């Protein structure tokens, strides 16, 4: 009986001390048309909100581009270093309530992020009215 109690305690302790998989960290964005990696994005938390910043691009021709079509604070900002996901909060299994900016055309969309069951795939969805577009990003290990 004591051995079973000890085994249960050890199993319980190990199970509940495993780090929870979440969306924080680095993610590889994938081009919808080619299937090739496009950039590396850092998803981070600041003041209880989720943000995303482009930290690297795979195409050297894009590395020094700026967000020419963007407006407001994003106007003419370098693509690398650009905070393009802003203000999301956790809502059950999804993160929403914020925005995502497409630096290629300067359009801002409502955003939802959701970790897939494999925890190495992030579903990224941008909404404009009733229309949406979904991408799947892969965790950088």
From TrEMBL:
InterPro entries found in the cross-reference section: DUF2147 (IPR019223)
Domain of life, per lineage: Bacteria
Domain DUF2147, first and last residues per copy: 25-139
A Pfam short name: DUF2147
The protein, known as: DUF2147 domain-containing protein
Organism of derivation: Winogradskyella thalassocola
